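Local shape tokens

___
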Amino acid sequence: DPATQLQLSLALVEVGTTEPTLNVECIYKNNVEWTAVSSDIVKLNPDSTASPCEGTKSILGQAASNNINIVLTRSSSFAPGALYTQLPFTIKSLATWAGARRLRFQWQLAGIPTGSYVDLLHGSFGFNGSDFISCQTLAIPMTSFNLSPITQVDSLKITVVTSATMSFQLDNICLQDAPIVEIPTTTDEKVKVSSN
């Protein structure tokens, strides 16, 4: 519905095919993809069955405090900047994300930060931290992480950054190659689509 939804990407479907071919690697869907290790399994549970947005499990942050993190580790290193254009995921806020509450996404190689971190906070990447009903699908452009096409990583660390506590569900974390859409900043601009 164009009145309530914004198209984020397009996919070409060739004649004689039924769906587009997208390069996708899932990091977390039901806690069976990459290996998930939490610094506090009670406050940041990667194996929660409590009302996931999709599937049977999600990462549940329940009154998670500052610096609690989860590390999602791949079986081998790779260069995501050469293969993927975005990091889409699903998130549901379980309490208002006021002030400086955020989730910090950081790629790593052997536990050492690589590239730049990206913070998810209320208002960034279209996230509404006051919406307790919807599971929101967001996407962070891979360019935001400042990874060169040859930069190797083997894990994604997600850290709670807050002066209080945060509660949320996180799910469907995947890497995807799809066109990047630049959202117009004025009504006079047109949407620009580019594929890398």
Notes: The longest strand covers residues 69-78. The mean pLDDT is 85. The longest helix spans residues 80-83.
